[in-house]
Design a protein that fits this description.
Structural class: mainly alpha
Radius of gyration: 23 Å
Largest sheet: none
Number of helices: 20
Strand content: under 5%
Length: 495
């Protein structure tokens, strides 16, 4: 009788967790999709008002700010989420540590700004670095607010706040670009986004900082978080290393074209990938003492994410010419091959995120750090071998390195969870084959349709219909699962 009761309680808990995960995932996808969708539209408007050179300048500066933001925001935020019990003292302690870190790093960037401008031979960068680096301060607050929301898996307020901030900052950026502010329109958009987000979150999230600080709490979280901080810093340094090299070895125009080509696949994949990352960590952490449940959730995350991402990457690469022509205009057509190569690189990203979040949930930040070191050694070796090539070949080698890292990220879970690499690829294979077939059809269709918006619309419709039809005919399990999720959401009120 006791055993039956325990089984019923466990099943009830699992149903509750599933509902919570689905609800959280829904709002994270809505947040990322809404915010990035707005930013995507804004970026199209700005691309028509600004030049590739101006985009190149801001993207070079953003690399330095992004790296600085990792130091401020990562590590402690993840440690707050992973910690089994977190109270007001924990949140407030991390809040003050983050602000202190932001102050120190801003000072470093302020002093380093003239050197950055000299290195890239652009005097305007000095002021841009100093102004854009101000986002570190609201970023320090946002990381704690986001950790608070993630622990409770109540992402609705975060969704509303992010979308609102995107609208406000985007409108400001377009207004400034229309008034002839040039690259400063992009600076205004970035700074405006962080300021608007921290202000709106203040009303949307119930957490408020208090005059509480406990060094022993900080030290405890730091023992877990420093490895993740180092791993994130190494990953961000490496991810942006190619941008720094492109901006220096080639020119600002090439940097602008490369970043614009990367934008399209990155927008799609980071939307889903960030949602998976935000929801999976707290969900998996709650089951860290039950490895079999972690494996089940991990497999489901990988199967579902690749079912959605792979066809989008295949279709995007196949329709790249029409897409760039219609959305950005003739002056950006040089970014088409960069876009297609980026689709290959980002196609494997959701798998990497899922595998790495499983490691974090199991408390193995040490393995996480080791993986990042190994991957970056491989990446630096590839960079050194390809640096003398042309810009396009240089980026193609980067995509090959990203694919190789998929195997490296999956390797530890063979021993830790018993989820083998071969099993992972068997889970992926059905979606991969259908996506490749669909992508080939979309590419061939470009020769039968007129160039421009009509051709793009035809390719999109054809790709969606073919992919869904093949998935239904072949009875892909991920299609059935997603259909059941949709029906379940329609019958359940979203909280």
């Amino acid at each position: 009788m006791t055993e039956l009761k325990e089984t019923q309680q466990r099943e009830t808990a699992e149903r509750g967790t599933k509902a919570q995960v689905l609800n959280g995932l829904f709002w994270k996808v809505m947040e990322n999709g809404g915010s990035q969708g707005i930013q995507f539209i804004i970026s199209i408007l700005l691309a028509r008002l600004l030049s590739p050179d101006e985009y190149g300048i801001i993207n070079i500066v953003l690399i330095f700010v992004t790296i600085a933001n990792v130091i401020v925001q990562n590590g402690f935020g993840t440690a707050l989420i992973q910690k089994q019990q977190a109270d007001e003292r924990d949140y407030s302690s991390v809040f003050f540590v983050n602000l202190a870190a932001a102050s120190v790093i801003y000072g470093v960037l302020f002093l380093a700004a003239p050197w950055i401008a000299v290195f890239y031979e652009n005097p305007e960068m000095t002021a841009i670095v100093r102004v854009l680096s101000l986002v570190l301060f609201p970023g320090a607050v946002i990381s704690v607010q986001t950790a608070f929301v993630s622990r409770q898996m109540k992402f609705k307020g975060l969704c509303i706040s992010t979308v609102t901030a995107s609208l406000v900052s985007g409108a400001a950026g377009v207004f400034m670009a229309g008034r002839g502010f040039g690259v400063w329109a992009l600076v205004g958009q970035q700074v405006g986004y962080y300021l608007a987000l921290v202000c709106v979150l203040f009303f949307a999230v119930s957490w408020r900082p208090k005059l509480l600080f406990a060094m022993e709490r900080v030290e405890s979280m730091f023992r877990f978080g420093w490895k993740l901080l180092c791993a994130s810093l190494i990953d961000t340094l490496f991810m942006n290393l190619y941008g720094l090299v492109v901006g220096k070895i080639y020119d600002e125009r090439t940097m602008g074209i490369y970043s614009r080509g990367e934008q399209f696949p990155k927008l799609i994949v980071t939307n889903l990938g960030t949602a998976i990352q935000s929801v999976m960590l707290p969900a998996l952490s709650a089951h860290q003492n039950h490895p079999e449940q972690v494996v089940s959730m991990l497999r489901r995350a990988i199967q579902t994410s690749v079912f959605l991402v792979l066809p989008m990457m295949a279709g995007l690469a196949a329709a790249a010419d029409n897409l760039v022509l219609v959305l950005l205009g003739e002056k950006w057509m040089a970014c088409v091959p960069f876009l297609q190569i980026s689709c290959l690189a980002y196609a494997v990203w959701p798998m990497d995120i899922a595998n790495l979040q499983a490691l974090n949930a199991m408390g193995r930040s040490d393995v996480f750090l080791k993986l990042e070191i190994i991957k970056k050694i491989v990446g630096v070796a590839i960079l050194a071998l390809s640096i003398r090539c042309g810009a396009l070949t240089f980026i193609a080698w980067k995509a090959a390195g990203d694919f190789l890292c998929t195997f490296i990220n999956a390797w530890p879970n063979q021993k830790l969870l018993g989820y083998h690499i071969g099993q992972m690829w068997r889970d992926i294979l059905p979606s991969l084959l259908v996506s490749l077939f669909m992508g080939a059809g979309v590419y061939l269709l470009r020769f039968a349709l007129p160039v421009g918006i009509i051709g793009l619309a035809g390719q999109v419709v054809f790709g969606v219909v073919i992919y869904v039809a093949l998935a239904w005919i072949l009875k892909l399990e991920s299609l059935r699962y997603l259909w059941n999720v949709v029906k379940e959401r329609r019958s359940t009120k979203i909280s």
